[in-house]
Give the backbone structure.
Amino acid sequence: MTETTMATREQLREQRKQKQRQRTLRWFQGLWRSLALMGLAYGAFWVLDRPDWIIKSAAQITIEGNQVLPAERIRPLIPLTYPQPILTLKPQELEQAIEAQGAIAEALVSRRLVPPSLAIQVQERYPVARSQTPISSQGQSPLESGYLDAEGQWFPAAVYEPLSEYQPLPTLEVTGIRELQLPLWPELYQTLGRSPVKILSINWRDSNNLILNTELGSFHLGPDLTQLEAQLAAIAKLQQTLGTTIPAQDIQYIDLQNPDEPIIQSNKPIVPPVPKPETP
C-alpha cells in the first residue's frame, strides 16, 4: 500500500468524523432552539396570564384631551369586555372602533404595564348642521335624521342626541345634500361662517342652485361656488339698504347668481321710493 493511499484513507476518516461532529452540533442546536421556543411560549403564556397585567374594569382607562364630553361619557364608547389581558389588546383596531362610533374624531390608544392601564388621547367631533342622510348617487336611500361635522362626515342623530346635555346641537339645517357634494362641504361651511347675516338653513335639493335662507331673506346663489365670497359681500351691501327700499315681507327671494347685479323677486311690483322734496 502506498503512502498516497494511506493518506487518502486518513483524510476520508477525518472527513467522516467532521461530518459526524457537524450533525451532532446541528442536532444540539435544533434541540436548543426547540427548548428556547418552548421557553418563550411558556413565558408568553405566563405573562399573559398574570393577574397584574389585566384590564379588569373601565376604571383602568384614562381619557385625555377631551374638551366637552366627560370621561364617564366617553368610556362607554370603548368596545372592550372585561377582564382583558393588556398585551392582547390591539391599539390600532381599538382606535378604529372608537372613531367609527362618531362622537370621537380621532383616538390614540397607549398601553401601560405599570400600573396596568390604558391611556386614550381623544379629539372630539362636533356637529355643525342638522341633515338627513346624504343622497346616494345610486338612488334615493331611506332618509334618516343626523348631523354633519365641519369636515363633511355624517352620522345619525342617535350618535349626538344622547350627548346633547354636554354639547349644544346645531340649529343650522342642510337639506338635499348629496354624497358627491360632501367633499365640497368643508370649504363651503368655512366660507359661510363669514356670512354677514345669520344663516338659518341651506337648501341644496337643486344641485344647480344653492339656496341660503337667512334672517334677511332667501338668496339663490346658483351652482358656481367660486363666487361665494362675492355673493356674501353683495348680501352685506343689501343688508344696509334692503329694508328701506322694499319691505322684507314683500320679497320672495333674491337672485345672486351675478353678485354684481342682484335681482329681487317680489310678491308685489317694486315701486322706487319717492324722493322727498327739498325745503327752500
In short: The chain has a mean pLDDT of 83. Residues 228 and 266 are 23 Å apart (CA to CA).
